[in-house]
Amino acid sequence: MATALKKKPAPNRAVATKQTTAVVGKADMPDYLRKSKGRGNEAVGMADVVIPRLEVVQALSPCLKKNDPAFIAGSEVGDLFNSVTRENYGQTVELIPVIFKKQWLVWTDRRKGGGFKGAFDTPTQAAARIKEEPNPADHEAMETAQQLCLIRKEDGATEEIVVSMSRTKLKVSRQWNSLIRLTTGDADRFTGVYSMFSVDDSNANGDEYKNFGVQFVGYPTEDQYKAAAALYEAIESGKRELKADPSQEGIETADTGGEY
Fold this sequence. Notes:
Mean pLDDT: 82
Number of strands: 9
Helix content: 10-25%
Oligomer: single chain
Shape: globular
Strand content: 25-35%
Largest sheet: 6 strands, antiparallel
Number of helices: 4
C-alpha cells in the first residue's frame, strides 16, 4: 500500500506552529488507574456522547477572550480547534473523510436566547420542529453538510471529528466532495488524506471572516484505513450515531451576520 505523503502547505499561506491545549488521555494515565473497569459509566450510551466538531477561530470567537469559559490560551484567528477537548491544532490539520451526511439543524436566534433544537434529515422535518416553538420566527433550519472524519495526528494516531459546514461553508463541502471523487475515484471515501486549513473569505456585505480550505495530500496508512473502515461500519450498522457537538460556538461568525 502506498505510504502517506508528507504534509504540504496550501499555496500562499503560512502554516502556524502547533499550539496545543493539554488534554490528558488514557495513554498518560498512571498504571494503578489504567486497570480500572469503567465503573460509573454504566448508563452512558452512544446516544449520550457527541463527536467533537472542528472549528476555526474567528475574530470574535469566545476562545480569544481571556475571561470567557471557552478561552483557549495561545489561540489566534485562523487556528483550527476541537470543540470538546479545546485542543488547538494550529492552522492546518490532516483529515481522513469517512462519511458525508446532509442535515438541517434548527437553531434559535442568539439574540432570542439561542439554543440548539435538533438535527433533522429533511427540511420538512426541521420545519415541523420549528412550528412547535411558541415563536417560530425566532428559529431557522440551517442546511448543514456533516463531514465525519478522522484527524491524523502528528504521531500517526487518529481521533474522530465532524466538520459541520453550513452557509458559505457549504461551497467548500461541495468542492471537497468533488475533490474526493477526482482523487480516489470509485474507492472508499476514506482512502485519501486531505489537508484542511483556514482561508480568508467575505460575505455579501463585505464582512471578512475565516473559511475552510482543503487539498489532497496522500493516502492513509493501513492501520488508519482500518480505523476509518471500522468507524464507517459502526455508523452504517447503527451501533454509532453521527451526532455532532451541538454547541453554537462557530455559528456566530461574520458569514452568518452574527445572528446565530
